[in-house]
UniProtKB/TrEMBL annotation:
InterPro entries: Metalloenz_LuxS/M16 (IPR011249), MPP/UQCRC_Complex (IPR050361), Pept_M16_N (IPR011765), Peptidase_M16_C (IPR007863). This is M16 family metallopeptidase. It comes from Aquimarina rubra. Residues 494-516 are annotated as: Disordered. Residues 211-389, 681-858 form the Peptidase M16 C-terminal domain.
Length: 957
């Protein structure tokens, strides 16, 4: 894992850009830097008379453009008692504007084949779109309308709706998750009252509930003017056309109030502060220790980033050595610095193994500090961190959107998109002496904030002398709809030089251009697929071995998952630490994971290091170390992960849903990770037997995308081809029992849950079924996108949820049709009914307008489909996994284009039957279960977290 913080991600992804902009390819002999010389990021910056700063970057590699507008306003511009406004207003800007009707921002961008979203953090707010290049003017129209022509449309009803949506987001991301309130406790106590970082971006619930339209209008007028914004346009455009559009749409917007740059407000602590909270969803304890540091772009901030990596990441890290290996207090350690615009903080985060004391972990942290001081830092330590930054940089600019983000953030926070070169120089300048210095300055013997989040009733696990944190838990109340008078007043239009109510014409859409690919079969039976993409000096690859969880036995569920963990723990000739270091020194990443139907080895590396990276993959695959010490650690970590997830409503929902749909006799009814009992029973011999029986090139496919041709790609596989012998592997087939004949309401109790997780559906069909893709197209307007009917009602109309979706999930094995959402607890019953009613109504057919919207959104979005190496790799994986033609996307496009209203209706009636679905609710039974008893379901059952029926007499209501 690389450095984890937002600002550092920017600089991490920017490393060695200096070489890009200053080094030229002078001779063919410069092979080591040959790839670097191919890339440059040119930009032009100028300013409109109203203060809007514009950055243009041409990139004609794909027929798309990205527009990003970053405002100089985040939660740091709010005031005590009025928190959450920046994030709330981010939502408001998606509602409507004077010339764009309600709920049309998403729909209009999807209708041209684009995608859009926004984001708010402590220091900024950004909105972005990626569209086919012919729709660039549509984006200019939409973004300028909400910048200069919005405030008259902010009504009480629209405002109240988004208040609910934001509160639901808080419930989903904070209140209903283990350790969700941790950041609140930390920031309240490390930053003093009134400091701009004292509150959370999401805001205080009471502030969100008390906010008024007048508050929002005042905030908008202050911070959302052109003079407080940067517009970045990146992609395939002509500069003269772009400048003319920007001037037309943004030039007439009036400058607003001046916004002064915030002054640095670093903080210090006079004493250590210690807090404890009994967490409703935690099953193991978690410790956080946080020290105040410095703002971004300072010399110390760069060194602190390195310090976090050195203290916690990897097997050489002292926190790992002490807390994981020596004391077995945890299975993972994390440390990172987060330097923001006006202040910073350094954080150590450790989730304990079951039953382990946070007091012991705190003591272990200081023991690790002593080890760090004694062992010191080597030059190799510094270089191995830097080695991965070049690869991360290229990954970060692999899309036009990524480039837009980088240019926008440098312009807003450093005043110059070109600051990237200085930023990189600052990173390159970090030395081991710098790291030791910042450790001594900010961490060693300095006061800190420490939080202990422990399971209910387990206060003995908290760090010593902890006081109760003042966490405010929302009280579950009966749902009361807010009545807002609909005045239907005509919106006052802001004057404009042209008629903004007329949407611009799109122009001709880019034609589908499926990248050419190649494939072959090696002599050992392994199939190989590739695409050459020359934009970046990178290669992304995956080796997919069929089987995975399907090959687990019922009494040893989780063997496949443990296999992928143990095989990354060293090789026959390399210790786990040595293997990790060799990968890092190449600037590469190699990961291994298990899915329901495969084991996957994935990798990302600079092309110049592909051969060496593949040598390591070969060694990992063919020469396992079978390290007993690491196996014990992995088992402990896995068991603790299973126990922790048992309190996560989303994980409970997934596990129970699979058990209900597939039944006890199908392996998919059991989680890939296994159960506590099964993992405890697994031995190293089980893993060795699984490996001997099931790893074979005969059931494997290798995919590679990058700046590499077929010959060089196959050459990198030469040793693997000759050394990896084929064997016969039989993958079990399980009977799919798809005979549901009634509607069943299943309820799993999570006491005091602030949201209910809803999964509704039944088993449907495999990805290989000829109806699968047509049915996916049919589903699009029901719930396949933000503009799906269920989301528009549950989120945009009712404000019950942060999002609602429906979809099919088949693979080679029949999957489910599922409708899902997390809703405010006191709207659970209403939400289930809305899902049920909307699925039933959908079978009556959709309008011609909705069908055209579906076709436009799905067909035109293909212009964005082939931009990144990751997207191309997924396409190759689909081709190999489902035996698809290289141009299968063109065939899918023909299916979309040819769909009629009659076909759409027939598919809906064939594959949607709400009267036979399972309706699963994970929530607070005491307040929500009773109303389902007489709601028209064929059966209403209470289940436990293992999907076993619970007698109602045993439930405390």
């Amino acid at each position: 894992m690389r450095i984890q913080v937002s600002r550092t991600l920017i600089i991490v992804m920017s490393f060695l850009f200096f070489a890009v902009v200053s080094c030229k390819k002078e001779t063919d002999a410069q092979s080591e830097n040959e790839e670097v010389g191919k890339l440059s990021i040119d930009f032009e910056k100028y300013e409109l008379e109203n203060g809007l700063q514009v950055v243009l970057h041409q990139d004609k590699s794909d027929p798309i453009v990205s527009v990003a507008i970053q405002y100089g306003v985040g939660s740091n511009r709010e005031k005590t008692g009025r928190t959450g406004f920046a994030h709330l207003f981010e939502h408001m800007l998606f509602q409507e504007s004077e010339n764009v009707p309600q709920d049309q921002f998403f729909k209009k961008i999807q209708d041209v084949g684009g995608t859009l979203n926004g984001g708010t953090w402590q220091d900024g707010t950004i909105y972005y779109e990626v569209v086919p290049k012919n729709a660039m003017e549509t984006v200019m129209w939409l973004e300028s309308d909400r910048m200069g022509f919005l405030i008259n449309t902010v009504t009480e009803s629209a405002f109240n709706n988004q208040q609910e949506v934001v509160q639901n987001e808080k419930r989903q991301r904070v209140d209903n998750n283990p350790y969700g309130h941790t950041s609140w406790v930390i920031d309240k106590n490390i930053f003093p009252e009134g400091h701009p970082y004292n509150w959370q971006v999401i805001g205080e619930l009471v502030d969100l509930q008390n906010a008024t339209v007048e508050d929002v209008k005042e905030f908008y007028d202050k911070y959302y003017g052109p003079n407080n914004a940067t517009l970045v346009l990146a992609g395939d455009f002509e500069t003269a056309d772009a400048k003319a559009m920007i001037e037309k749409y943004f030039g007439e917007i009036k400058k607003r109030q001046p916004v002064e740059k915030l002054k640095v407000q670093n903080v210090t602590l006079s004493e250590t502060k210690r807090f404890m909270h009994e967490d409703n969803f935690a099953t193991t304890a978690q410790l956080n220790m946080v020290w105040p540091t410095v703002e971004q772009y300072t010399k110390d901030a760069y060194a602190l980033d390195f310090l976090g990596e050195l203290l916690a990441e990897g097997k050489k890290a002292p926190l790992y050595k002490v807390l994981v290996k020596e004391k077995e207090l945890t299975s993972d350690t994390n440390a990172w610095n987060r330097s923001m615009e006006i202040a910073g903080k350094f954080r150590i985060n450790v989730t304990a193994n079951e039953g382990k004391s946070l007091a012991d972990i705190e003591a272990g942290v200081f023991e690790a500090f002593k080890k760090f001081e004694t062992e010191g830092i080597t030059d190799t330590d510094i270089e191995r961190i830097k080695a991965g930054l070049e690869t991360d940089f290229y990954n970060g600019i692999s899309s036009v959107l990524g480039k837009s983000f980088r240019l926008a953030q440098y312009n807003v926070f450093a005043g110059d998109p070109g600051f990237i070169t200085q930023d990189i120089e600052n990173i390159k300048a970090v030395t081991k002496e710098d790291v030791i210095r910042v450790y001594n300055t900010y961490i060693k013997d300095k006061p800190y904030v420490i939080t202990s989040f422990v399971p209910k009733g387990k206060t003995d696990l908290a760090a010593k002398d902890s006081e109760i944190a003042n966490v405010v838990e929302e009280e579950i109340k009966e749902n009361v709809e807010t009545a807002v008078a609909d005045t239907k007043e005509e919106i006052e239009k802001t004057p404009s030089a042209f008629d903004r109510s007329v949407a611009p014409k799109e122009g001709e859409s880019p034609k589908l251009n499926v990248p050419s690919s190649w494939n072959t079969t090696l002599s050992n039976g392994m199939k190989v697929f590739g695409i050459e993409q020359n934009e970046l000096p990178l290669a992304n690859f995956s080796l997919v071995i069929s089987g995975g969880h399907l090959l687990d036995s019922f009494d040893k569920v989780g063997v496949a998952n443990l296999m992928t963990d143990i095989m990354m723990e060293g090789t026959a000739t390399k210790t786990p630490e040595q293997l990790e270091e060799e990968i890092e020194l190449l600037g590469a990443s190699i990961n291994m994971y298990t899915t329901r139907e495969s084991i996957v080895i994935s990798g990302n590396t600079l092309v110049r290091n592909l051969d060496k990276t593949m040598d390591l993959v070969e060694e990992i695959l063919l020469e396992p170390r079978w390290d007993e010490e690491e196996f014990a650690r992995i088992k402990t970590k896995t068991i603790n992960d299973i126990k922790r997830s048992a309190a996560n409503p989303n994980v409970v929902a997934r596990n129970v849903y699979n058990k209900v749909l597939y039944g006890d006799k199908h392996i998919f009814a059991y989680p890939t990770i296994g159960t506590v009992e099964s993992v405890e029973s697994i031995t190293m011999d089980d893993l060795k037997q699984f490996y001997a029986n099931n790893f074979s090139p005969s059931v494997s496919r290798f995919q590679i995308v990058g700046d590499i041709n077929k010959d060089k790609a196959l050459a990198a596989l030469t040793n693997l081809e000759s050394k990896w012998a084929s064997k016969e592997v039989t993958i079990p087939e399980y009977e799919i029992v798809n005979n549901r004949d009634k509607s069943s309401l299943y309820f799993v109790d999570i006491p005091n849950a602030k949201q209910s997780v809803i999964n509704i559906g039944y088993l449907s069909m495999a990805r290989t079924n000829e109806d699968y893709f047509p049915a996916t197209v049919m589903n699009y307007k029901l719930g396949g996108s933000f503009s799906g009917n269920v989301n528009l009602i549950l989120r945009e109309e009712k404000g019950y949820t942060y999002g609602a979706r429906t979809g099919f999930s088949g693979t080679k094995i029949p999957g489910s049709f599922t409708a899902s959402s997390s809703v405010r607890t006191n709207t659970t019953f209403e939400s289930v009914k809305i899902f049920k009613d909307e699925i039933e109504k959908y079978k009556n057919g959709i309008s011609q307008e909705d069908l055209e919207f579906t076709k436009n959104a799905l067909i035109k979005s293909n212009a964005r489909r082939f931009e990144t190496q990751g997207a191309l790799l997924r396409m190759l994986q689909d081709i190999g996994n489902y035996d698809l033609a290289p141009d299968y996307i063109a065939k899918e496009e023909a299916v979309i284009e040819g769909m009629t209203l009659e076909q759409h209706k027939a598919l809906a009636n064939k594959y949607l039957d709400e009267s036979k679905m399972a309706y699963l609710v994970i929530g607070d039974a005491a307040t929500q279960f009773e109303q389902f008893k007489n709601a028209g379901f064929d059966e209403v059952l209470m289940l436990d977290k293992d999907a076993k029926e619970v007698k109602l007499s045993d439930v405390k209501m």
